Amino acid sequence: MPGFLDGKLALVTGASRGIGAATAEALAAEGAHVVLTARTAADLEAVEERIHGAGGAATIAPMDLTESDSIARLAQAIAGRWQALDVLVLNAAMLGTLGPVAQIDGKEFNRVLTLNVLAQQALIAAFDPMLRQSEAGRVLAISSSVGEASRAYWGAYAASKAALESLATAYAQEVGNVTGIKVAILNPGATATVMRARAFPGEDPATLKPPSAVGDAIVKLLGEDFETGVRIDVDG
């Protein structure tokens, strides 16, 4: 049976594993053709195979979003094949080293900000024209609880997510009254991912919700007429 995203195009960054992969699979299950991007081609291929095996449609685009012109090349390639982009999921991010603000390594902090903030703005800028071509373009920025309220030793990552939320909120206001684009900020909450395991190495992943729960929450949100700029916490 066709899903409510049948005929729609979605782009998911950081789609090789965890929340990104689960979101891509959930979108494909509802009929969207999903473009998957991440650095590791082999992992992307595995996600693509699962989507195709379930009867869905996907295209992989292995790349490092922090490399010069990579996002512009991606946008050019997608625009050459499709007219509109209906869903943009800004999921790619890096945690960096957790530690005191006074001991943040400048080079690593630069890498965190480059991926978590600068690349996200570049993605919005590059795909804004295609989002405007959609009848109801949707941008979902995957954030964190520390993006809203920072905590000790999380300063670098929290700063990057707070900046992402500010960018997404501003974009929502800029396009809200003149286009059909809507933006939502999603805090996945405690989820069994590789990043979570790095941040909380002693935690039992069996006590956390699976990434598929976040993917399902994203699909559910896309089926609703939400208020642009909304911030949503995924519970349980």
Q: Would you kindly provide a written description of the structure presented here, covering whatever features stand out?
A:
With 236 residues, this protein is an alpha/beta fold. The protein has a single domain, classed as Rossmann fold. Helices cover 44% and strands 14% of the residues. It has helices spanning 18-29, 41-53, 70-79, 106-133, 155-176, 194-199, 211-222, and strands at residues 9-13, 33-37, 57-60, 87-90, 138-142, 182-187, 230-233. The protein has a seven-stranded parallel beta sheet, with helices on both faces. Strand 2, helix 2 and strand 3 (57-60) form a beta-alpha-beta unit. Helix 1 (18-29) runs parallel beside helix 2 (41-53) and helix 3 runs parallel beside helix 4 (106-133). It is globular and about 50 Å long.
Please outline the major beta sheet. 7 strands, parallel
Number of strands: 7
Task: Find the CATH topology.
Answer: Rossmann fold
**Uncertain stretches:** none
CATH hierarchy class name: Alpha Beta
